Structure formats: C-alpha cells, structure tokens
Amino acid sequence: KTAPDGTETVSAHPARFSPEDKFSKYRVIIKKRFGVLPTQKAKTWRRIVRQKIRASVPRPVLTYQQWAKRRLVISFILFFIGWKAFGVTLSDMVLWTVDENSGEGRFVTPVEGRERRLESERARNRRLRNTQSLPQFDFDD
C-alpha cells in the first residue's frame, strides 16, 4: 500500500504467517516440526479432553424445548380433566336434586339455590339465625 504522499507503508497488523516477518517464519518452522505451536498445546489438549468427556456422557433424552412442550400439553390435558370433573361434581351434588314427593330428579332453581345457601349460612353464623320472639302474655308492658 502507498500513503497519499507516495511512500510505501507497512501494515500495523501483518498477516499471521507473512514471509516478511521473521517471527512468523520461526512459528511456521515450529508448527511444521511439532504440529502445534507451544502456546496452542494447552488449548488443544483441553479441547481433546473436553470432547472425550462430552462423548462419554450420555445425551439427554429430551431437549428443554421438547420437555417444555410436553409439560404444556400435559398441563392442558389435566386442566381439561379437572374442569370436566368439577362441572360434573357441581351439577350432580349441588345443582341436582330429587323431588321427595314424585321421586323425579331435576335441577335446582336459582331461588331454591339462594334459599339453601342462606340456610347453611344461618346454621353456621349465630347472628344470622332468626331469634324466636317470646309469646305475649296478658300482663306484659
């Protein structure tokens, strides 16, 4: 390369194995002789050992993505089953009643449902219970 004034320039970052750099020539000789530069030996051995360890450990059966997808599908299925079971339980035990006179089954009307709920709340809470008024006597004020 040439500078704007016409002089030849030298790259600040020469090629790794450039023929004009004497240290590059030495590195090429060492690499041809030993196969690896001394600074790279530790990295190479580390890479080889890690590959052996990785090859000896069994691979996981599922990836995280597959595991998450299966978990999502199973969660949805269990939610659906629970929703149906809750609906069946609610309709069979709470909303369905058998008439004592005719023996026929029928759904509870909203008014009857409110009355049942109010009765159960009265049975639990003393303040909601009806206090029976005492009979009136002749000499009461």
TrEMBL record:
What GO MF annotations does this protein's record show? snoRNA binding; telomerase RNA binding
Transmembrane domains' residue ranges: 72-96
Checking Pfam families in the record gives:
Nop10p
UniProt xrefs under SUPFAM superfamilies? Nop10-like SnoRNP
Identify the keywords attached in UniProt to this record, alphabetized: Membrane, Ribonucleoprotein, Ribosome biogenesis, rRNA processing, Transmembrane, Transmembrane helix
Keyword field contains Ribonucleoprotein: yes
Protein name, per record:
Nucleolar protein 10
Q: State the species of origin.
A: Angiostrongylus costaricensis (Nematode worm)
Upper classification of the organism: Eukaryota, Metazoa, Ecdysozoa, Nematoda, Chromadorea
